[in-house]
Amino acid sequence: MLVWKNWLGLLLLSPLLVSCSSPGPVQETTLKNGLKVVVRQDHRAPVVVSQIWYRVGAIDEPEGITGISHVLEHMMFKGTKKHGPGEFSRIIAEHGGRENAFTGRDYTAYFQQLEKSRLYISFEMEADRMQNLLLDEEEVKKEVKVVMEERRLRTEDKPQALTFEKFMNTAYTRHTYKQPVIGWMEDLQRITLKDLQNWYQRWYTPANAILVVVGDVKPTEVFALADKYFGKILSHKVNPTKIPDEPVQKEARSIIVEAPAEVPYVIFGYHTRELGEDKNSWEAYALDVLAGVLDGGNSSRFTKELIREQQIAVSAGAGYSMVARAPTMFVFDGTPAKGHSVQELVAAIDKQIQRIINEKVSQEELDRVKAGVASSDVFSRDSVFYQAMGIGQLETVGLPHRLLDDYVTRIKAITAEQVQQVAKKYFRPENRTLAELKPLTMKNNNKKSSGGGHG
After folding, report:
1. 375-401: string of b/e by CB count within 10 Å (b at 16+)?
2. Can you state the percent helix, strand and coil of the chain, rounding each to 5?
3. Dihedral of CA 435/440/444/446: which sign?
């Protein structure tokens, strides 16, 4: 199943699960240096999640230093004058917590999960490395090699991941969403200590960060604690990256990727829109419902018809990620069943797409998807981690956190006519990009994958 879901409707459970009453409202403030602090009370367990989000990701990276946001994320664990390399992780673990970080297309974030009385430890260390990170040339060289190996393991040695990367690099011709979050290998090889110092100094500042705290806390106390540790950090205005608009796609694109693989695979998609607050914002919710109709559990059309009944696919997915800083894509993917070709699978998916365009989805299907969304929302609120994730992601891409609480209501308001309307608008042949993975045999294993872009 395609992993292309937005955090608002994510059916995931955190290890920090709590009981079944509801969390409290969200409160926020902005410190004098520009750091935004967002807090949600959830008193169902004596735990707290702290996340610091920076408005910088792969979308901001110019050609030549792609992957630098991810490399800097790694370097943030290499220490300051006060806390040496690895000390951050060690101290959090000693206090019974866990921590990690992630880099995405639109942001970079760091998080800790702790017993509530230990929140100050997270704040003290995050504030320290926000302003005092030590960047050593030898450590940079070592960590770049670690990221390069990560790229080999997660992308170059994973044929489906490689196909997705080339798909994105073909679907986008100008916009920086064409670049992989982990960066191109040749760019990673070129990243220098000076590049990282400049990136850190430019983006890691209070005015470009959002602190999200969810758990057994009182907002006024969190605001005071945040001011104590972060309030004295000098800040500067961050000029946003000038990102080129993606031209309207006027003709279909396709690419063949040849790589060692056991089975063929196909991924194709259509340029759509991201979630916003304009009069047409309903389109994002309609696209999300559409994804649920096609690929939302065992009763969805793809699972029921393509996998179980027709047995034309061993996997078939549809996904849409609505929360983004720029127009995103609605993506289909799948692996044909034995005895069937990629072309047959694409034709079968196309038939399902045309059915959506030509016929309104049934009320029964709408009710199933909406019930699933409501259920997912209940589960996500049982996780303090994913509550924080939803708030942080929305705020970092420039949307208000209240949309998290509005999500189920907005989904329930979507009609069959609206689902059909967005399908007609976006699922146009000239708006499609397709990437097919052709498994290499041992004889031609030395061939390079074909297609546009880097790699």
Report:
1. ebbeebbbbbbbbbbbbbbbbbbebeb
2. 45, 20, 35
3. positive
Strand pairing partners for 375?
Answer: none
* Amino acid of residue 69: S
Q: How many helices (H) and strands (E) does the chain have?
A: 15, 11
Query: What is the residue whose two structure tokens read 């699933």?
Result: 372
Q: Give the separation between CA 64 and CA 62, rounded to whole angstroms.
A: 6
> What single-letter amino acid sits at 49?
V
Per the CB < 8 A criterion, the answer to whether 73 and 103 are in contact is: yes
Structural tokens at position 435: 């990437």
CB 341 within 8 A of CB 438: no
Q: CA-CA distance, 211 to 232, in Å (whole number)?
A: 15
- Please answer whether residues 394 and 212 qualify as being in contact, where contact means their C-beta atoms are separated by less than 8 angstroms: no
Residues 6+ apart with CB under 8 A from 247: 173, 174
Does the CA dihedral 95-97-98-101 come out positive or negative?
A: negative
Classify 333 as helix, strand or coil.
Answer: strand
pLDDT of residue 381: 80
Percent of the chain residues topping a pLDDT of 90: 88
DSSP run (H or E) holding 403: helix 402-412
Active-site annotation, residues: 73
pLDDT tens digits along 259-278: 999 999 999 999 999 999 99
As to burial, measured by CB atoms within 10 angstroms (0-12 exposed, 13-18 middle, 19+ buried), residue 347 is exposed
